[in-house]
Design a protein that fits this description.
The structure holds three protein chains of three kinds.
Chain A: H1 2-8, H2 11-29, H3 33-58, H4 67-84, H5 88-112, H6 115-135, H7 137-140, H8 156-179, H9 181-191, H10 193-198, H11 203-229, H12 239-252, H13 259-273, H14 282-299, H15 317-322
Helix pairs in contact in A: 3-8, 3-11, 3-12, 3-13, 4-5, 4-11, 5-6, 5-11, 8-9, 8-11, 9-11, 12-13, 12-14
Chain B: H1 2-23, E1 49-55, H2 62-78, E2 82-83, E3 86-94, H3 98-110, E4 115-117, H4 125-135, E5 138-141, E6 156-158, H5 163-180, E7 190-196, H6 200-213, E8 216-223, H7 231-239, E9 244-248, H8 251-263, E10 272-274, H9 281-284, H10 288-291, E11 295-298, H11 312-323, H12 329-346, H13 356-364, E12 394-399, E13 402-407
Helix pairs in contact in B: 2-11, 2-12, 5-6, 12-13
Chain C: H1 2-5, E1 14-18, E2 23-27, H2 34-64, H3 72-89, H4 94-115, H5 122-144, E3 157-159, E4 165-167, H6 168-190, H7 192-202, H8 204-209, H9 214-239, H10 246-261, H11 266-286, H12 292-306
Antiparallel strand pairs in C: 1-2, 3-4
The chains are: A mainly alpha, B alpha/beta, C mainly alpha.
Chain lengths: 327, 421, 322
């Protein structure tokens, strides 16, 4: 036990951790609802970022409509609580089940086809679910949405702590998977699938598994969102949310556990600026997200986290490998 | 040694913040206006009372969102900017999406707003319906969802119409037109019913009412919002035999649909629209050939008879003068919402306005009859805070490029011409 | 004439729509006669042809040039908006607007290729073009507002018989699409640049050894495919209205068409486009319009699972890599 603690937490890291915890616990003490709100959204994006990180950063399957999983989690909870009368736990499980179905379809396609087709299938599935959520009013509440039972309203502080725990848990979970044997297989999926296959690794199975795990994480974030917003809305499937998730991870650093933590700086900045800029500039924030994403992806694919990482010895191999075309 | 000191210091910081956290009581904000500034008898200047609206000023529904903003502003202006000696003002925020609306709500609440009116689309009203009781902020909602209010509340009020009433009213109206003008009783009436699936919440009560009255829907088509090609639906309508065409459409699909019908040289026998598209100037732009004779069911609009509602004429004329185009029902809705606050605040001493409980109680106690407010509807809340006097709808007809009110008797400006010649 | 002699009575799915509390029996589609069907199918063919042209550009980019361009729909939508604003709002005569739009598209294609698509990593391409997609949509919303824009060209109908007709604009668009695609195909086969493009696509290193500047050729090819987008956009705006999210819809249709036809095949895209148009029209007629999107995209996913290389293409190892 002591060995593990010493391995993961050097003293420097431990101090940083404790100070971070202090800040995080201090926020609710300010009793400023707006800051709490911003913090909740930011922490939710950390969770979502970690889930995308797992799928794309670790396993190399680029999911461009990750909001699909997120939205299904929200819809599962609201549908279960509103229409079916399930308990809270039952509804969360319902959201999870719906995500499992979607992840199975996507994962199955991912095992058979390469990246581009995977993306197209994803978009097709997303479009279907998006249309479905609007059309079938009796099930999904259509464009109006369904209300969550009012008794389940949680105070902003409770929501904040739930979001905090979820974010920390997702980071620990990500790191745990990364350091495990499973994680190594996932990384092999991304780095060199042919070699891994030749070495006997079950590539198809691991693709499947990584999609499912990522979808489950996003599902929890979606279920949380249902409690935060107290309603559902087809907007949760929107492309803007997907863009935000991707941006958070890419700007922060893909493949690294603290990447999303750095990435949410953009989200926080946007929320703080809201209301200060003249209202005509609302679509502008999405444009800024997009540009940030493009610039980071082109210029600094390792993300902001690379500022903190020690630079490995550069012998030119890394540069050559990053140019290799992956189909 | 250094490590241990550093560790201990950081642990102390942690304990300090835990302690600070424990003292709070978890509710409210640090920036609430305290009531000390407005104690009666001090003779101090009161701060202007803020009524806040979060509406879609950008994004998909700019037109509607801005109409709401204009209506609210005009209301403040026509009230003279003050009531009982204390100034009132509007605070606007932009909420193009649900998440943005919630974020803006928190921000405005933080800055002291305690009185809210819905913005266009009322997109986050379900969230607010759950939240405002705990936050103690009055919220007047114009949302028409039938299941919006889940239980008793002291702060959340639904002041506008109910979608079920609207939908059922539309079918009743159509049936009445069939009986009065076409001489066909309701249970022999045949309709063609085409709707945009985003309006499914309006379609469902209509379907129920049609079943109840025995009306047969010979064509019953729902299409997704992004449908571009309407030839199959129109061809079906051409092949079928029916008496009244009932479209439920939005702006993005209504125009192509009407255009296509015109290109295919097909006019339904009688058109009775429900849904805001058929009231808009955008529809009027299609030209008299297409619009003449089309009837629509809508909320009370600024075009009802001048003597039906107090102040409707002034509203209409000043709106057109300031904003350059004729007002639609949206502006009137927002206008009405602010007027309800005005009536409630009038009954209170300005010193009490900062006590949200009193304001909410004043709103709840309102009893206004039809015609007292410019939007014609009255105000009387039932136990679930739904307005029971917002159930009067009107039927309009396009005649030579103008939208005229043809029903009910006390609000109409002329009779309908059915079928159109 | 056709009505009386060849009246065919179709009795469709008599659908019971069960509500929890009410039972309404609504018969879907009365007696629809043959000429109504023919009208619908003709309409589907014309629109499908246009979809085919639109999808062929995507097919070329993705299959032949191997660029994942997810900003495709947005570029199309931007073209439509610019055409509308040029002709209607800024009152520039049409014969000046058209070349300007084409130049704009060419430039956009070049820009994208030089900036975004230099990086060969497929994943990065997907993400950056997705971001560009949203940027374009929001830029258009910001500048032009999200209001749907319609050229309001009421088309005449060409009457073949009394009851069967085709829209004049639709038919012209269909013929134009066919002509342009044949032209593009000829360009690829017969001209020097076209052959250079094909050789670079087949084997880039060998082409470079033969003295062809591969990078430049690829730039030109990409920009040329953007010209196709420009033409499609101009044709589309004459028939449909433009709104910021139109691109997403077209993109998904392009997916369906291209995957069914096989990525990279231009003529296949045109034919499959027509097929999709007809199937879509039939679904709307037989099942009801609300099933259109769901059935179409459901079929898409099934095709992806079963025959990802294309329905009509023999099994090539195009899609099956890790």
């Amino acid at each position: 036990m002591k060995g593990i603690i010493q391995k993961y937490f050097s003293t420097k890291r431990l101090i940083l951790l404790i100070i971070a915890m202090a800040i995080l616990i201090f926020i609710p003490a300010l009793e400023n609802r707006r800051l709490l709100n911003i913090a909740i959204i930011a922490l939710m994006y950390v969770t979502l970022g970690e889930s995308w990180n797992l799928l794309s950063g670790m396993s190399g399957l680029f999911s461009i409509n990750h909001a699909l999983f997120f939205g299904l989690g929200t819809y599962g909870v609201t549908f279960g609580l509103n229409k079916l009368g399930f308990s809270v736990l039952g509804s969360i499980l319902l959201g999870l089940a719906m995500n499992l179905v979607a992840a199975t379809i996507v994962g199955y396609i991912g095992t058979k086809l390469s990246g581009l087709y995977f993306t197209m299938a994803f978009i097709g599935l997303w479009q279907t679910v998006y249309t479905f959520s609007y059309q079938f009013f009796s099930i999904t509440g259509g464009s109006l949405g369904l209300s969550m039972p009012r008794e389940l309203l949680l105070s902003k502080r409770t929501l904040y702590f739930i979001a905090l725990i979820m974010a920390i848990a997702s980071m620990i979970f990500y790191q745990f998977i990364r350091r495990s044997r499973l994680g190594t297989n996932f990384v092999a999926l991304k780095e060199n699938p042919d070699l891994a296959n030749a070495l006997g690794s079950n590539i198809r199975g691991y693709r499947f598994l990584s999609t499912i795990i990522s979808a489950c994480m996003a599902s929890f974030a979606g279920s949380f969102y249902a409690f935060y917003m107290m309603t559902n809305n087809p907007e949760v499937f929107s492309g803007i949310i997907s863009l935000k998730i991707i941006m958070v991870v890419i700007v922060g650093g893909m493949g690294h556990v603290f990447g999303p933590l750095l990435g949410i700086s953009f989200v926080i900045m946007d929320e703080l600026i809201r209301g200060m800029m003249p209202s005509q500039f609302a679509p502008f924030s999405v444009i800024i997200y997009g540009f940030a994403l493009i610039i980071m992806a082109m210029v600094k694919p390792e993300g902001l986290i690379s500022i903190f990482k020690k630079k490995p010895k550069d012998n030119g191999v890394a540069a050559k490998q990053s140019k290799k075309a992956t189909a | 040694m250094k490590k241990i000191i550093a560790l201990t210091l950081s642990l102390l910081v942690l304990i300090g913040s835990l302690a600070g956290c424990g003292n709070s009581d978890g509710k409210g904000t640090t920036e609430t206006k305290s009531t000390e500034t407005t104690e009666a008898g001090t003779g101090k200047e009161y701060e202007p009372y803020k009524i806040s609206m979060i509406t879609q000023l950008t994004g998909d529904n700019t037109f509607g969102g801005n109409e709401y903003k204009n209506g609210a502003e005009l209301a403040i202006k026509q009230l003279g900017g003050e009531i009982n000696g204390r100034k009132i003002e509007m605070v606007f925020a932009d909420g193009p999406t649900q998440e943005a609306t919630l974020a803006e709500f928190e921000r405005l609440y933080n800055n002291g707003s305690r009185a809210f009116v819905s913005g266009y689309g009322c997109i986050a009203d379900r969230a607010f319906a759950s939240m405002v009781d705990e936050m103690e902020a009055t919220y007047l909602s114009l949302a028409w969802d039938a299941d919006l209010i889940q239980g008793e509340s002291d702060y959340f009020f639904r002041i506008g119409a109910n979608v079920t009433d609207f939908a059922k009213g539309a079918i009743e109206q159509a049936a009445k037109i069939g009986e009065d003008y076409l001489k066909i009783p309701a249970d022999e009436l045949k309709v063609a019913f085409v709707y945009n699936t985003r309006l499914a919440h309006v379609m469902e009560p209509m379907k129920e009412k049609m079943a109840e009255l025995g009306i047969e829907a010979v064509v019953f088509e729902g299409y997704p919002t992004d449908t571009k090609d309407f030839v199959p639906i129109i061809t079906k309508m051409q092949s079928a035999e029916y008496d009244i065409f009932i479209p439920l459409q939005g702006v993005t699909d209504g125009t192509p649909f009407q255009k296509k019908m015109f290109e295919l040289n097909y006019t339904p026998p009688v058109t009775f629209g429900a849904g805001v598209y058929y009231d808009t100037p955008i529809f009027a732009e299609l030209g008299d050939d297409i619009t003449n004779g089309i009837m629509t069911q809508s909320y009370t609009t600024p075009y009802i008879a001048d003597d039906a509602a107090a102040g409707i004429k002034e509203f209409r004329e000043e709106y057109e003068q300031i904003y350059g185009h004729a007002p639609l029902t949206h502006a009137l809705q927002a206008y009405g919402g602010v007027y309800i606050y005005a009536k409630a605040l009038e009954s209170l001493d300005p010193a009490d306005w900062d006590d949200t409980k009193k304001v909410a109680a004043a709103v709840k106690a309102l009893d206004l009859d039809f015609g007292e407010l410019p939007w014609y509807w009255g105000v009387k809340f039932d136990e679930l805070n739904s307005n029971t006097r917002a159930n009067q709808f009107i039927t309009n007809q396009w005649i030579d490029g103008k939208l005229e009110c043809v029903y009910p008797e006390n609000l109409k400006t002329r009779d309908a011409i059915v079928p159109w010649k | 004439m056709l009505n009386e002699e060849m009246q065919v009575i179709f009795i469709f799915i008599e659908r019971k729509r069960h509500d929890e509390f009410f039972d309404i029996f609504i018969v879907q589609g009365d007696y629809m006669n043959l000429s109504a069907y023919i009208n619908i199918i003709f309409n589907g063919i014309c629109i499908g042809g246009l979809y085919g042209l639109t999808s062929s550009a995507w097919s070329f980019q993705c299959g032949a040039l191997k660029f994942a361009n997810f900003a495709y729909g947005a570029s199309l939508m931007a073209t439509m908006y610019l055409t509308y604003f040029g002709i209607r709002e800024w009152n520039i005569p049409a014969f000046i607007v058209m070349p300007l739009i084409l130049i704009f598209n060419f430039g956009l294609g070049m820009l994208m290729r030089k900036v975004l698509l230099k990086n060969e990593n497929r994943g990065t391409q997907i993400i950056t073009t997705m971001a560009l997609n949203l940027i374009i949509i929001n830029l258009v919303t910001f500048v032009f507002t999200g209001f749907p824009r319609d050229m309001a060209l009421l088309e005449k109908r060409l009457y073949i018989t009394e009851t069967i007709s085709i829209g004049a604009t639709q038919f012209t668009a269909f013929c134009l699409s066919a002509v342009i695609l044949i032209g593009f195909n000829t360009f690829l086969k017969k001209t020097w640049t076209g052959r250079a493009i094909r050789s670079v696509v087949q084997n880039r290193d060998a082409a470079t050894l033969m003295g062809i500047q591969s990078e430049k050729i690829l730039d030109q090819a990409f920009a040329l495919s953007y010209l196709l987008i420009g033409i499609s956009g101009m044709l589309l705006i004459t028939m449909f209205q433009a709104e910021p999210n139109y691109g997403n819809y077209i993109q998904t249709i392009a997916f369906v068409v291209c995957v069914s036809a096989g990525l990279g095949s231009l003529s296949g895209a045109f034919g499959t486009g027509i097929l999709v148009g007809v199937i879509s029209a039939l679904i709307q007629t037989l099942l009801g319009s609300q099933w259109n999107d769901i059935v179409l995209f459901g079929l898409f996913i099934v095709i992806l699972l079963v025959r990802p290389n294309g329905i009509f293409v023999s099994k090539k190892n195009v899609a099956k890599t890790f």
